[in-house]
Amino acid sequence: MIKGGLAQFKGKRILLLQGPVGPFFRRLAEDLEWAGAQVCKINFNGGDWVFYPQKSTLYRGTPEEWPAFFEQFVAEKGINFVFLFGDCRPIHIAAHGVARRLGIEVGVFEEGYIRPDYVTFERFGVNAHSSLPRNPLVYLHTSVPTPPAPQRVRPAFWITARWAMLYYAASHACRWLFPHYRHHRPLQIWEGLHWLRGFWRRWHYRILEEDVETTLSGPLSGKYFLAALQVHVDSQIHVHSGFGSVQEFIGEVMTSFASNASPEDHLVIKHHPLDRGYHDYTRFIDRHSRQLAIEGRVHYIHDQHLPLLLDHAKGVVVINSTVGMSAVHHGKAVKVCGDAFYDMQGLTFQGSLDAFWQKAPTQTPDPNLYLRFRNYLIRTTQLNGNFYRRLHVPGVASGLVWADDSEKDAAAADTNAAGEPESHRPRDVA
Q1: Which one of 322, 373, 420, 425 has the largest count of C-beta atoms within 10 Å of its C-beta?
Q2: How do 81-85 and 56-58 pair as beta strands?
């Protein structure tokens, strides 16, 4: 819920850059135009184009020419708001710098800070670039109403996979049209094979690790630390941390654990589900376990139920993943090894990783601070919904809940007073 909802964009001239894979940005444009905004779009590859072919401009120049092109484009169109998904893509970094210099507002979408029922929308930046206060006193002295319960988002794996494979195929087929484009991640037609391999591995690990949850919630309950991995190409690693790779993070955590944890403690390393089709760290972890003489105390797992793992963990170690937020929600001590917007006194452990293994039981988060922080977070940065599977929100094409009922009523009254025809409203969608 963002204050003012969609009505805040009335009269704005909005430029859309790259969005999530799929038709989300096209549907968002319908909502923005209904709210009274003028919307245009720049596409950078065939994947962008296939999902937003109408009223769009194709950028076919080089990365070096892009900032000057962007500056001229926003000046000619009178743009005063730019929307983009992910603020660490090279084309978005360049556009963001120009927009700030020109006084143009930037709205950044990202996957939800609180999952699975929310997506993130912030002005300026997201994650470590977020403008959220890092001082816990701000939240302790700010009264924010409890947000209404969100609509539940159903799993969207297959829909996301379908959109991703179509995006990659269209990008590959149209690469001749965008000869200078360089994607922020590997962009090959066989990327879809990784999704298929990930699906196969999901069932493989389900059989192979069928007794893991019983062990972790039984004999090892309260005796293990959970280390949550992230996707190997995630900007959270390469931009917002000092790690060069996931392997480097694993190695540092295992080394620290071996030297500082109690001999009866175990370390559970959980693979990221979206990285399942790309990497397998079994050999790397086994080799380090032997070198550190902690064989039998390190467990590498994949698709177990995260809330159950958090309930029975002694503490949680992350780079800067939203798993850290989930762990705080479960009242667990969390050590953040990168830069995260929620890493602050009262929520996470502020000492060294080496000290964490012994002090974690006495460093649980302040529940009052967490509740106030969570309410503030939802009210100011989160939208109920999903980029890939729409919620049923009457009259909203994007399938997101932009405001609570009181704000929607106020926006509707304002719109009716302005004489906006009801026929301009998007049709109800599932």
Answers
A1: 373
A2: unpaired
Distances in Å between the Cα of 365 and the Cα atoms of 191, 195, 361 are 40, 36, 11
What's the pLDDT band for 161 if we cut at 50, 70, 90? confident
Cα–Cα separations (whole angstroms), residue 276 to 202, 289, 392, 422: 8, 21, 30, 47
Asked whether 386 and 153 are in contact (CB, 8 A), the reply is: yes
Grade residue 325 by pLDDT with cuts at 50, 70 and 90.
very high
Buried b (16+ CB within 10 A) or exposed e, 371-394: ebbbbbbbbbbbbbbbbbbbbebe
Distance of CA 135 to the CA centre of its chain: 22
Given a cut of 80, whether residue 186 has pLDDT beyond it is no
Q: Which amino acid belongs to residue 319? A: I
d(CA 107, CA 429): 24
Of 90-94, 238-242, 294-298, the one with minimum mean pLDDT is 238-242
Task: Provide the b/e sequence for 84-118 (b: ≥16 CB within 10 Å).
Answer: bbbbbbebbebbbebbeeeebebbbbbbbbbbebb
Phi then psi for residue 403, to 5 deg, are: -155, 160
Number of neighbouring beta carbons within 10 Å of residue 196: 12
From the number of C-beta atoms within 10 Å of its C-beta (0-12, 13-18, 19+), residue 417 rates as exposed
Tokens of 356: 């964490």
Burial grade of 353 (CB within 10 A; 0-12, 13-18, 19 or more): middle
Of 284, 369, 325, the C-alpha closest to 336 is 325
Q: Are 139 and 369 in contact (CB under 8 A)?
A: yes
DSSP 89-151: SHHHHHHHHHHHHHT-EEEEEEE-SSTTTEEEEEES--GGG--S---HHHHHT---PPPPPPP
CA 318/CA 343 separation, integer angstroms: 11
Length of the chain: 430
Residues with Cβ within 8 Å of 261's Cβ and at least 6 positions away in sequence, in order, are: 225, 267, 357, 358
pLDDT on residue 411: 47
* 282-292 and 246-260 helices, crossing angle to 10°: 30
Q: pLDDT: is 153 or 55 the higher one?
A: 153
